[in-house]
Amino acid sequence: MILCLKERKKKRQTGIDDPNLSDELLLKIDVPANRYDLLCEEGIARALKVFLGQIEIPEYKLNPPRHKIIVEDSVEDVRPVVVCAILRNIDLSDRDVYNNFITLQTKLHLTVCRRRTLASIGTHDLDTIKGPFYYRALPPESINFVPLERKKAVNGYELMELLKTDQHLGPYLHIIKDKPKYPVIYDSNNIVLSLPPIINGDHSKITPQTKNVFIEVTATDLTKANIALNTIVTMFSEYCKDPFSIEQVSTVDSKGRVTNYPIFEKRIVESEIEYINRGIGIEINPEEIIGLLRKMGIPSQLSKDKKTITAHITPTRTDIFHKCDLVEDVAIAYGFNNIPFRTPFVKCYGSQYQVNYISDKVRSEVARNGYTELLTFSLLSKNENYTLLNQDIETSPPCVEVTNPATPEFQVARTSLLPGILKTLESNKDCHLPLKVFEVSDVVVIDNNTDTGSKNRRELCAVYCNSQSQFEVIHALLDKLLTAFNFKFKGSENEKSYIIKHSDNPTFLEGRRGTIIATVKGKSTEIGSIGVLHPQVVLNFNLLFACSALILDVQYLVDN
User: Fold this and answer.
1) Is 240 found in the same domain as 106?
2) Orientation of helix 95-110 relative to helix 41-51, angle to 10°
3) What is the span of the domain harbouring residue 154?
């Protein structure tokens, strides 16, 4: 995000216009996506003052709770998390400060809150409401309140109709619109504070005259809720009568467990001095590193062995997780332009991946046999991946599924290239026969031995389509291809060889189908399938002519 800072011509508190102020653009600040503390002018000003040594790193104080919010189990299936805090005796009378307070909420909604889907923030005038507060989910027709900046009370359904054309709030209605119950926050007088994540009630709205602000963050993700709450209270607690003090609020969950928020965890990240210097490419002493981290708002100290820096992470720096994050901050404070240029100590020579080299060789060999290369989608529907190929979903090997597919056509990662090629032929039925097409690309297979639970394998699929199946044509392609890789048909034990055995693959026609078995150094492996496609498969893809297909594991050729 880029923030543009301008001098603003305004009447100062003294009542005198400053002639030096104008609308001229001074600078643009590129705010990293993980620096939520820099999304408001207060955060930028504080970071710059700390960097320049004009102020010390603020120490935030948590005051014990005087209010609580009771969470009912009805919100479990809707929006189960709520965290709260209070800024007491805050001065929002300066219109710029008040506007910045509102603007920060908006920017947090767009960033860490992911357009209110993960979390949403509500702010209320504490003096207009009475605790304890209640967080529950109710049927839309039983919720009745006056929404923010409206004059008439509405229920949940009426609110959706009222806001569906609203430019600012309309895009968020889908988050809860179709749920049987809506989340809502009440005070002890049964006054609605907010209907998260959509809108606050008009009764408790804050103004520049508000002295005590009650902040509630409802969410589906506790981590995001804590980040949003901590960011807003740390940024604006400086305007409290007791600067940088925040009053906690107790959250009582449906099982009676009590947790006080906000929580300022005392996080510590350690990094070796040698690791920091080596990561940046500089040679500076520990005292300089500590000074540079202090400039970035991170207090730190040197260990007893004088080899390690221990950094104490403040609540505003939610982006610091690992020692490499400390390296980045030291580099920023040191100045990227000040890092000396030097020749790398390690010489790296680029080369083509073996799998790509073999794939290009396969492409060249198949293309020389008159086949045209295709490039199809790597995602397809479950129906196309299994049913249309006469495969049983229950007994076939599982595939990688997309959790929230954009369309039904992109439900799973393909386990075969054949469906994509047949779909292409379906769209090109008017072309002259014969049609000879192929694709060399990756398929995705389940592998529980990998970190991701799956892996890619390079595969070849070639299809011959004509008025007659002419199985011998696709068989000739197989012979030509494997011969190019020094495989011999029914070769001796000491040679790389291959044979075709009977197959029961239902994708192909009985009696005209086979499994390709390759043998290298006495070890036999199934590397593909060949045959005439079953007539039902051809009809499933709305094709008019017989097809023969070859499916070959290119990854095997790479490994052997």
Assistant:
1) yes
2) 100
3) 59-261
